[in-house]
Design a protein that fits this description.
Strands 1-2 form a two-stranded antiparallel sheet. 54% of the residues lie in helices and 4% in strands. The protein is mainly α. It has one domain: Orthogonal Bundle (Multidrug-efflux Transporter Regulator, Chain: A, Domain 2), CATH 1.10.1660.
Length: 111
């Protein structure tokens, strides 16, 4: 299996590796989890496992912190970004359903 075959939502990184990869300390990752900003997977023994998606979310959190937002503000921004993505996906599906068939797919007239 190549790295491109790995599910980006699959938890594979331990907390110390994840913290190193995003340039944060493990205590911050625990805090963000307590505040509901992310939800890493857990092993049967309860060990946190961070996914590529979690790492991207942590990087976004870091960007928002650098922009001066507090954790409550970051929570709202992340919520609004997720809702925006859901609405865009729904719009894309609706537009795809409404598109007329391409000209090449239409039957030709026999005039």
């Amino acid at each position: 299996m190549s790295s491109s075959d790995v599910d980006p939502a699959q938890g594979v990184y331990g907390i110390s590796v994840a913290a190193d990869l995003v340039g944060m300390d493990p205590q911050s990752l625990r805090l963000y989890e307590r505040r509901g900003l992310l939800e890493p997977a857990r092993t049967d023994g309860g060990t946190r496992r961070y996914s590529s998606d979690d790492l991207a979310r942590l990087q976004r959190i870091r960007q928002l912190l650098a922009a001066g937002l507090n954790l409550a503000g970051i929570s709202k921004v992340l919520e609004l970004e997720a809702e925006n993505a859901r609405l865009r996906a729904k719009l894309d599906l609706t537009q795809a359903d409404m598109e007329p068939p391409s000209l090449s797919a239409r039957p030709r007239s026999t005039d």
